[in-house]
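Section 5.1 Outputs to date
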Amino acid sequence: MPHVKMYCTAVCPYCNMAERLLNKKGVTGIEKIRVDLDPAQREEMMRLTGRRTVPQVFIGDRHVGGFDDLSALDAAGGLDPLLAA
């Protein structure tokens, strides 16, 4: 299973939903980067993604996007193959 990284904050309901979806898919080790604790990490997230909102999910080297993007990828059948790579 590829490395999964998620930029998040402590009180973000979409971050929690993204984590639940990934857990449901068998992902147990999500590297969570708390941008609310480290403003430099938010800057890094914005540089990498061009987005300001959380969550921002990476699977391997691929930027998947936020929860809506992750959920749409799952609905389209694209999340399982990405996690199996």
